[in-house]
Amino acid sequence: MMNSKPSCVLFGSELSDANPSSRDFSEVREVSRKYDIVIGIEIHCQLATESKLFSVSANAFGSVPNSNIDPTCLGLPGALPVLNEACVDLAIRMGIATDCTVEPVSVFERKNYFYPDLPKGYQITQLDMPVCSNGTVELTSGKKVRIDRIQLEEDAGKNIHQEGSSLLDFNRSGVGLIEIVSAPDLSSPEEASEYVKRIHAYAVNLGVSDGDMERGNFRADANVSLKPKGQTTLGQRTEIKNLNSFKFLEKAIAFEIERQCEVLESGGFVAMETRGYNSTQNETFSQRSKESAHDYRYFPEPDLPPLFVSKERIARVKASMPELPEAKAKRLATTFGVTESDARLLATNKVICEYFETLMKALDGKVEAKSVCHYTLTEITRVIRNLAENSASTTEELVEVPVPIAHSLEIILLLNAGTLNIRMVREILDESLLTGQTPKSIVDSKGLMQVSDDGPLLAIINKVLSENEAQLNSYLNGKDKLFGFFVGQCMKSGDGKLNPARLNDLLKESLESKRTQNET
Ligand code: MN
Q1: Judging by DSSP bridges, how do beta strands 238-243 and 273-278 pair with one another?
Q2: How far is the CA of 48 from the centre of ligand 1 (A)?
Q3: 322 C-alpha vs ligand 1 centroid, how far in Å?
Q4: What is the Å distance from ligand 1's center to 238 Cα?
């Protein structure tokens, strides 16, 4: 069963903090002069289903310890796993988003190891035949990062270490995960973090996962190695486990690159091992020497048949998927000719984007996309932000734009015809939200109409200049900054209804001619 919680990640803002100048990885850049930096990422992403991967217990965070359990997820003798099809659909979603091949047949395997939080003594996962394989994710630089595989597997329980004792909570045991494994195509901490952010945005936007990194529902392992430039074989890699923030991921990788460089430069060799990251000390530390796949004695899970995925099923999942933000931004830019950055802003919020598209369709070419986009991104967003400030919901949780399309159409046409200026638009929007009146009736009843004719504009300019003689003299003597003061006075005198562009021009002309007179 899928969780219908609305996705609420701002795709744009997720990516926008990838600002390289805010962090200093100069030492990493130094290393990269001599070595090729090779990074691969494995992401464990908890699936947002109501029940577990192979049993009916609830997948819920924060329950009383050991309350969401059953014989299967505890590994009691004789209990059999039954595959939760909703988990498969979510894995397929991620596969489609990352351009993977969704495999017609995949196989579950037992990965055998002993650990207190794994009561069965093995994890059900996939190995040679994962549910999805061979995908790509394109970074903003245009670099294509290959995805090796996406496999379905179950999560383990939790150890809680207390003073003098360790406790076990099996609520998480058997919860569905996808593990997304990239090829070693990343070559800097920033690239690695952009890639992980991209996968995270997919997961949240597609409802695959809640993506809660603090709770460990989305965590990354980074495989890092260095290869002297010119060498063809890869260097020995280490794996940094369980990085649960984008910032820690970058820092841990940067530290590990520098550490390995020091080891190699001093003539040592990098040991194959699993390392942890201590965010307080900002360093990675050795946890255990890394096992090879054969240590786990993998074998096909005898209690589960192979997983068959039909073409029809893939098509059904695909049809149910929302358009991804990047694809949407690209489409907006090509269809309407708005700038790429505006398209990306529009694409970050589904509701606002749909609103813009409805407006464009209704206007049918009567108004330029640029103006409609500007109106949507500034005025409509302002209205929504004001409403959000006065309620418990956030802008991202918005279900519907509170301004009826018909109202916006009236406003845009009046704005486009030069009848209204932005100040009036704001007044009308606020009033219309409050009273439910249409913009046109507000314009009529309030006599709101922008003054664009030279006659009345010049009358106001002359009045303002004669009333402010001292300022006028300072201006004529070179104090150019006072121009803004005159604009303000005119606007005030014109009750905010003056056409600002025309006012500017006429005011400039009047002042220039007075300066010329003054000089002669
Ligand atoms: Mn795994």
Answers
A1: parallel
A2: 17
A3: 27
A4: 16
Compute the distance from residue 111 Cα to the ligand 1 centre, in Å.
10
Give the tens place of pLDDT for each residue, 226-273: 999 989 898 999 999 999 999 999 999 999 999 999 999 999 999 999
Output the CA 86–ligand 1 centroid distance in Å.
Answer: 19
| Token duo for residue 497 | 């209804």
Cα 25 to middle of ligand 1, angstroms: 29
d(C-alpha 51, C-alpha 87), whole Å: 9
CA 103, 109, 115, 121 torsion-angle sign: positive
Residues in the chain, total: 520
345 Cβ contact partners less than 8 Å away, ≥ 6 residues apart: 12, 377
Distance (Å, whole) CA 254 – CA 193: 11
State in Å: Cα 124 to ligand 1 middle. Answer: 10
Q: CA 154, CA 157: separation in Å to the nearest integer? A: 10
pLDDT 10s digits, 406-457: 999 999 998 888 888 888 899 999 999 999 999 999 988 887 788 888 898 9
Tokens coding 303: 């209690």
What is the CA angle 458-462-467, rounded to 5?
150
Backbone phi and psi for residue 175, each to the nearest 5 degrees, phi listed first: -70, 140
Long-range contacts at 262-271 (CB < 8 A, ≥ 24 apart) = 264/35, 264/226, 264/228, 264/235, 269/236, 270/225, 270/226, 270/235, 270/236, 270/237, 270/238, 271/236, 271/238
State the distance from the centre of ligand 1 to the C-alpha of 337, rounded, in angstroms: 44
404 C-alpha to ligand 1 centroid (Å): 48
